Amino acid sequence: MPEITTKPRTQVKPQTERPKLYKVILINDDFTPRDFVVTVLKGEFKLSEDQAHRIMITAHRRGVCVVAVFTKDVAETKATRATDAGKAKGYPLLFTTEPEE
């Protein structure tokens, strides 16, 4: 009689990775009015007046400031919309994104 060996079945649960996060960065320029930068930060990123002012001042002093961290699609959309708001008013306001380490 032949020997029958059976292997137990194991269920493998798929491992889902967390999506990579991206930083939205405000780049300082010497032409965009501070009040306008605060307005854009409050409108696009839903920041309070105080938070928006602190981010604007940090970017002004250091040249750049991280505004927030999102998934790639959200970060790129918010950065583009905020930059476009500046362009619509004729300002060189610039937001970029980069991967978080």
Automatic annotation (TrEMBL):
One Gene Ontology MF term: peptidase activity
Stored Gene3D superfamilies: 3.30.1390.10
Subunit structure: Binds to the N-terminal domain of the chaperone ClpA.
Stated family: Belongs to the ClpS family.
Name of the gene this protein is made from: clpS
Keyword hit for tRNA processing: no
GO terms (BP aspect): proteolysis
Classification via Pfam families: ClpS
Function statement: Involved in the modulation of the specificity of the ClpAP-mediated ATP-dependent protein degradation.
Protein name as it appears in the record: ATP-dependent Clp protease adapter protein ClpS
Keywords in alphabetical order: Hydrolase, Protease
UniProt domain Adaptor protein ClpS core: residue ranges: 18-96
This protein's record includes keyword Protease: yes
